[in-house]
Specification:
Layout lengths: L3 E7 L4 E7 L12 E3 L9 E9 L14 E6 L7 H4 L8 E6 L7 E10 L5 H5 L18
Parallel strand pairs: 1-7
Antiparallel strand pairs: 1-2, 3-4, 4-7, 5-6
Length: 144
């Protein structure tokens, strides 16, 4: 079974949450597809896949169909450095490796955002429970 790290962005609060999902139902989904929030334990939520990255760290690009990595001649957008996009001549392009828009067993991270909210907030459902760390006993200093 494949393990995905789903990074869920909540546009309402501006916070993001990470959840590890071991489910094959995400394989074959594409960027822009809607998924049910029950998959992440979010009852009543609807999520939209916005991107991700593969096992080599290459970002998924919406306009590249399939699951393979390709070297594309890009002028901006996903996979291109910020410094390259600004302050350069119009028409300047660079060759970069990016992954396709379809989730496969090579995909490690999936980015998603909340489209439809449920009854409880995302923070209540996904935030880690605050566990108080056990206090360590104080060591007495014998040099006194």
């Amino acid at each position: 079974m494949v393990e995905f790290k789903v990074v869920l962005g909540d546009p309402k609060t501006g916070k993001s949450y990470q959840k590890v999902v071991s489910d094959d139902s995400l394989k074959g989904k594409k960027i822009g597809d809607k998924i049910d929030g029950d998959l992440l334990g979010l009852e009543g939520y609807e999520l939209e896949i916005t991107g991700g990255s593969d096992n080599s760290g290459f970002p998924m690009r919406k306009d590249l169909p399939g699951t393979d990595k390709k070297k594309l001649l890009l002028s901006g957008g996903v996979g291109v450095k910020k410094g390259f996009r600004k302050g350069r001549e119009a028409g300047l392009r660079i060759k970069k490796t990016v992954a396709g828009n379809t989730i496969s067993e090579k995909t490690v991270q999936i980015n998603a955002k909340v489209v439809k909210e449920g009854k409880k907030s995302v923070a209540e459902l996904l935030s880690p429970q605050a566990e108080a760390p056990a206090e360590e006993p104080k060591k007495e200093n014998s040099n006194e």
